[in-house]
Every structure is written in C-alpha cells, then in structure tokens.
Amino acid sequence: MLLNRYRAFTICSECGGSRLRKEALNIKINDKTIFEIVKMKIEDAYDFFQNIKLSVYERKISERILEEIISRLKYLNDVGLTYLTLDRLSNTLSGGESQRINLSTSLGSSLVGSIYVLDEPSIGLHPRDNYKLIDIMKSLRDLGNSVLVVEHDSDMMKEADEIVDMGPFAGEKGGEIIFQGNYESILKDSKSLTGKFLSKKMKIDVPKVRRQIHKNTKFIKIKGARENNLKDIDVNVPLGMFVSVTGVSGSGSRH
Description:
Elements: H1 22-25, H2 34-38, H3 42-50, H4 56-78, H5 95-109, E1 115-119, H6 130-142, E2 146-150, H7 154-159, E3 163-167, E4 176-181, H8 183-188, H9 193-198, E5 219-225, E6 233-238
Parallel strand pairs: 1-2
Antiparallel strand pairs: 3-4, 5-6
Helix pairs in contact: 3-4, 4-5, 5-6
C-alpha cells in the first residue's frame, strides 16, 4: 500500500496508450489504424467493417476474418451494447453488460444442446432495448439450447415459454414453487403475488408527495466528472437525501 503513493497512470508517449509498436500503428486499412478502430463505439465499428473498401485481392485474403468480425459486432449491437468502445476495460462493465457480452460470444460460437443460466441480464439495459435481448435469447433457444433466466422484468416474463414463480415471499419466507406455467395462466393464478401485480390486481402507488430541496439544503459539488462515458459534467448532490442517478445503460461511470 505504501508504494501506491509513488505510482500513477500516465499515457505512454511512444504508443499513445495503444500498447502497440510503431510498426503496427503504421499499418492502416481505409485510413484507420487498429488503435483508431478499437477506440470506436461498437455501432461505429460495425458500420466501418460493413462499408470497408477493399481490392479484390484484399477481399479474398480477409473474407473469412471479415465475416467473423462483422458477425461478432452484429451480436454486440443486437444485445444493446452499441455505446461501448472495443477498448473498454472489463472491470468497468456492469454485471448485465458482462452477461450480454457473454451472450453475444455464445451466439457467435453457435453451440447447441447446452443450458444457459442468466441472472437478470436486463440489469442496466434501457427498456427500449429489452426486445433486442429477448430476441437474442430466443435465437439461442432456436439453435437447440435451453435458456434459464432469473428475471423480474415483465417483458421478459411475457415472452417466456415457461414461468416458474418462487415464493411466497422473499428471503427465508420463500423457496417454494408457487406457480409453473405460461404468462396467461399466471395472470389468473390466485396464489401468485407476481401474477397479481402483472395483472394489475395489485399495485404500488406512486407517492403523492416527495421531499423537496429547500433553499438551506447543502450540496456536495462534483465538477468536471469524466470517466468512461461521462463528458466533463458538473452536478450538485443534495446532502441528507436519498439520491438516485439514472440513465441509459453505460451513460456514465461505474464505481
């Protein structure tokens, strides 16, 4: 621990942080080095390789590997990871992002006769991208695999072939199978709390009154926050309050 005070991360003046030799950085394809490509967002890299201009000779040499690159980038796009860059460190990813990367890898390998167990893969995923993830899991199923998902998302339950509802309550008051069947059946089940909420027979009301920030409220000021996708932002966080920071998955730093 004492050595940490003498350590710091700096960008290498020779390679510019690419970790590649000058010879490798001198090679360009469509005016892009490999370092410039891995710094692209996945959606931009996917577009780059789809529209890459090659001679007949270059196309013949790269045909197989180009097909594989485009395929992998397509799957990453399909699971809603368009905003990530290819050089993003794995320890900065959320659990849901890591699972979706593993899903795209599994699709690329085209395994059959396997069982996939996923623990809330929709965590961190914007609701607008839910069906992209669902389509990916259906693709795995259609290849001849079984996909077992632990989820609380209603869209995911609606599209499931089979639902197993565990309960009756949380923690030590749970652990029993309350219901097993399809989505239409759980809506009518009298024992399932999940079914009652899905069918709107039960609901949690939005609070009519929320705490307000008063003129005497003190704040913690964060200035110039920049990490991962954060773009040099300033924000005031009120003290003595429960504060929620939300956004599209990957829209900020993970700590």
